[in-house]
Amino acid sequence: MSTDNDSNDSGGGHCSTPDSDGEVAAEIAIISFERKLPVAEDIEDELADDYERIDIIEYHGDVFEEHWGEYDCFVGLMASGIAMRKTAGLLDDKWDDPALVVVDEELTWAIPITGGHHGANQVAHDLSRMGAVPAMTTASEAAGKQGIESKAKALDSHVVNGDSTVATNLAVLNDELDAVERLDGPRAVLVGDDVTVMKRNTDGVVLGTGTVDGVKKSQVLDAWEAALDALDLDFSDVEFVATATRKEGEEGLYEAAQEIDAGVVLFEKETLLDHEGPTPSRAKELIGWPGIAEASAIAGGRDHELAREKERFDEAVTVAVGE
After folding, report:
1. What's the sign of the alpha-carbon dihedral 22, 26, 27, 31?
2. SS3 317
3. Domain check: are 19 and 133 in the same one?
4. CATH code of the domain covering residue 246
5. How far is residue 75's CA from residue 98's CA, in Å, rounded to a whole number?
6. Domains in the chain: how many in total?
7. CA–CA separation, 86 vs 109, rounded Å?
8. Could you tell me if 285 and 257 are in contact, meaning their C-beta atoms sit under 8 angstroms apart?
9. 3-class SS of residue 119
10. Which residues constitute the domain of residue 183?
């Protein structure tokens, strides 16, 4: 039996960010045994603002089969063995199957089982706010790198040829993949099986951003707004936010990106060095990194050019705009 928790039409958070297959990771079902329903309700309360719909469904033997295809992600409040046995026969294609995360009653671990790059890793990460350790086993995330599917999601695009991602994710792991090449048409492109093709869902400018540690969301938003105002643009003109891998997990930056409905693309040090901006940066002298704002804006832009050179705001945020 499904408990009350009908659609939460919050319109915020991750629900508006397209998953890498072009779908929207918006609808979650928490599958729970009766005695664990209070924990399920706590999870729903915590995630309610991040997803369009969260339903709590009491476990029975055919619950996954009964609701397969109805939700983007299942959160199994149960042993991983139960969830695996009940869903194994339902799996067909990673681009179409719903994601699955299991979490224990004490909220110690949040383990993506399937669909790591299609919602499970994100849900596990969100559950970390409740103390659960997100046990991500997808190779790129385990190595602290942004895999192809995660890049596609952050770029607000979808992967056209899913089978190619095995080769390109291996290239990510081996530091052999540079910034995503962006082509505007009309043109014809012939690619091999080891080339991942992503099709943009939207078009716009790139906000290359560097921040101090512990930056506040309001500081980032104010800086972005000022930089865009100078170009007669606003947040609706932003395609995505670009920064360095060493800024991964910078809470204020990610909260600001979520506020304006933009993904965050992370660039490795080597990629940023290849796309260094025109303005000198002390960071290169001190730690060997180029200026993050300009280099990431250039690396992420369609034409690998700057629409606006970097400017520092509030001694906390540096912004450059790429096109």
Report:
1. positive
2. strand
3. yes
4. 3.30.420.180
5. 11
6. 3
7. 20
8. no
9. coil
10. 148-199
